[in-house]
User: Fold this.
Amino acid sequence: MLKTLKRTVRVESDFLNEWKYCVLREVEEYQKKIVNEMIEIILSEALLTTRKKLHERFYSDYKEKYPFLPSRVIEGAYVVAGRIVKSFRERKKEGLTRKDKPEYKKVLITIPNMINWKFNNVSVSVLTHKGWVDIPLRFTKQFIHYLYEGWMVSQELKLRLVGRKVHLWLTFEKEVESKEGNYISIDVNENNVTLAVFESFKLKELRRYEIGLGKLVINYSIRREEITKEHSTKDEVVKKKLRKLRERERKLDILRKTVKRITDLARSLKAKVVVGKFSSRSKGKMEGNKTAKLRHRIHQWGVIKFVDMLKTQAIDVDEVSESYTSSINPFDGEKLKKRKQIVEKVIKVFNPYLMTGSAHEGGGIKVLKVNARYLEGDEVLLERDSIAPLNIARKVDGRVLVFPSTSPNDLRVNVYDPLRGVPVAELEVIKSKEKLRHG
Assistant:
């Protein structure tokens, strides 16, 4: 089953000469004026925001009014106006707007197809009312990745003037193959990322990467308090010490390596990746009525960044609601008792250098601490972080079977070290109420 993936990359241009800058500034002013006029007409006439209806209403009138402008500038204007009005109407239904109408201030010149612009790998040429304007591009690692790994440039171009430079948004497309019934469902938690791997609709493996971001956030918070105690954060010495902490770099490194493990697994199985849907708004709701420390932990939770990083990969990623996935028994659909959570601490001692075949490097013994959180069902306890990806997979396709080939009571989740990609421990997913220790 083939699916076309779309990924948008932001690229920066070199400095523009005065003529190029003035021409693009004029196009920007024209589009700003036209879009604001179109927004008023769409709202006053209660028009639908479909592209066909907007073309019928605006194209001929504005082509006659601005005959010197390229046709795709006008087409891009009503596309932008339609998107703004559609978003405004949705937010108004939810009571999130304070104005009677939206206003187009931060202009993003939009050209919807490649008739009026060209791409030749090193520059973008845009047709304007004063001829073609060539914009030389600055290369980044991400841009090179899409350019030379089988991705094709899509039709739509967006650009914005920032000083004497241009920021361009290029959309790339690529066809990827996924086998029907092959899924990798993911549950992202504060300290771990748990995967359920399905082949031909049957559960093959439960895998957990113990990323430990929650513990990292707490430790860095304590360290910052120690550094800033009785000192101002404006102090140069304090600033230098805070910069040396490198919290952001460490968190991004862990997320990148975890994403790479999942991407390699998805490509090898030609599987569709399913992950919980999150937004800044949902995180904001979670932060409500919480203590300052808990709000900080939720705010620093890297789930949105993790999903965004997954979406940049050449794999099929689908987002679904995560509601109640960790509190429903995937085997019978019964609700678990959330208030009766039992936490079991598992400590595993291992030598990662022996496991990765580099024993000569030494480095000593590592200690892995894992918290297994169990919820009570009718007769058994179920590990909530392990059942969540099973329920997520069933939301996407009801044909998947969460039963492994053996008895459900023998179901295990393999705990991996994300930095080295090796299994270091094994946890029981289903446990009897009398048995509270792992064998």
Notes: The longest helix spans residues 18-44.
